[in-house]
Amino acid sequence: MKQTLIQRFATWLARVTAIDVGKANDGLVALPSGTLDRAWSEISAQLTDVLDVWRKNPLARRIIGLTTAYVIGDGITLATKYGPLNRYLTTWWNDDKNLLDLELGPWCDELSRAGELFISLHLNTINGISYARPIPAAAIDAIETQPGDLRTELSYHETVSPDDPDYLNNGRTWYNPQHTDADAPSATGHRPIMIHFAVNRPVGCVRGDSDLAAILPYLTSYGNWLRDRVFLNAAIRKFLWIVKVPKNTIPQRKAELRQEPPPGSVLVVDKDAESWEAVAPTLHAQDAEKDGRAIRWMIAAGGPGLALTDFGEAETANLATASAMGDQRTRFLKARQAYFGYILARLGLESYNRAVRLSLVRGKPATLKDILIGYSDVSSTDNGMLATAAAQIANALKTIFDMGVNGSAFQRLALRIIMRFAGERLTESDLDHYLPADTTTPEVNHD
């Protein structure tokens, strides 16, 4: 019997065997952990391209410079209440071979430009101070991590190191503080250690990505487009002369007009035997204006919290759009500033703990919770907004206080709320310092 189309499909489907996901021949290919990182050849090529465009393209340099200017601001400080750690951080920060106030800008540039920051710490066994030295991300071609844990890094391989006599073949290996042999002495003393920091790092990757990576093609295109426009505008001032003469005088006139007449020259010719015509290229600049703006918008859209106002272009913006774009940029910069503060705190902490472990400095091991990071304001308008909010909430709480809720417990709550609206956080110990502890319920005056 001849089957219909539906019957033939049902017969074929009956021969299909379903396989559960996760079993052999399920048709899916699982990627092993860590394979989301690009090949070293791709990473190296991008790092080279990014550095080259930063050196040659003013727009790229301005993008990186803006990030650094806001992140660093007036400076970043580290402080702690633990005396030995505080003394170490002060000495470490201001040591003649560190002078970290001068290093913050270049380090932040490298973090934004390369997406990664590799800092090596070289231990001075006399005073326990570690000297921080950045290593270009383009020099690190491999990172070893704990099996099954990409965030626990163990060592780094440097492709070129002048310290190794055979560096062209072997390179150099740096140990992370989490490596079991990080504190083991070597032939020349305690080996330096390295810490790796990264931004724009996707889940499943070890390496970071440059802030310029997504907009690199548009930066290059915009640079080439602008250069071509400059050449074309310069060409407008050039003229092509077409001289029409009798055929029998062409060789003679070619020799006579080997060079074009200089500006202001007066030529006397026979109008019936010779004619001159100047031809200049036609450049419609208004047609290219929208093209240039479209490219700049792509750069602003893919850049790190950028807006066209950052490029000095405000004719299409108003206060509302500028405020909205500014809020996006402020949030990005605050996040980057917090991460950069973590970098400095982590470096100081690792230097101190290593000196303590090796008995070069007296004290007990510390954690990141022991360090207070001080930042400068990303936006000056934040202070005014916080002051206004604190004043308004203080007036509201005073109204409640005047109604009769005036116990010490309420005072502690009010102080905590006011300081929160002012942008500061108070701990219980801070409250105990300013107000007496009281666990009783607020007193209410019913008069």
Helix content: 40-55%
**DSSP strand tally:** 12
The biggest beta sheet is recorded as:
3 strands, antiparallel
Q: Radius of gyration, rounded?
A: 34 Å
Task: Provide the structure class.
Answer: alpha+beta
Mean pLDDT across residues: 78
Proportion of strand residues: 5-15%
Helices, strands, pairings?
Layout: H1 5-14, H2 40-56, H3 58-72, E1 77-79, H4 83-94, H5 100-114, E2 116-123, E3 130-135, E4 140-146, E5 149-158, H6 167-170, E6 172-175, E7 185-186, E8 189-190, E9 193-198, H7 216-236, E10 240-244, H8 250-256, E11 275-279, H9 285-302, H10 319-357, E12 372-374, H11 381-402, H12 408-421, H13 428-434
Antiparallel strand pairs: 1-12, 2-3, 2-9, 4-5, 5-6, 7-8, 10-11
Features:
447 residues; alpha+beta; 3-stranded antiparallel sheet; 12 strands; extended; disordered C terminus
Please tell me about this protein's structure.
20% of the residues are buried. Helix 3 crosses helix 10 (319-357) and helix 11 runs antiparallel to helix 12 (408-421). The chain has helices at residues 5-14, 40-56, 58-72, 83-94, 100-114, 167-170, 216-236, 250-256, 285-302, 319-357, 381-402, 408-421, 428-434, and strands spanning 77-79, 116-123, 130-135, 140-146, 149-158, 172-175, 185-186, 189-190, 193-198, 240-244, 275-279, 372-374. The chain starts with a helix and ends in a 13-residue tail after the last helix. The protein is extended, with a radius of gyration of 34 Å. Among the domains are: 215-236 and 284-302; 239-279; 381-447, no CATH class. With 447 residues, the chain is of the alpha+beta class. Residues 439-447 have low confidence and may be disordered. The chain has a 3-stranded antiparallel β-sheet with strand order 3-2-9.
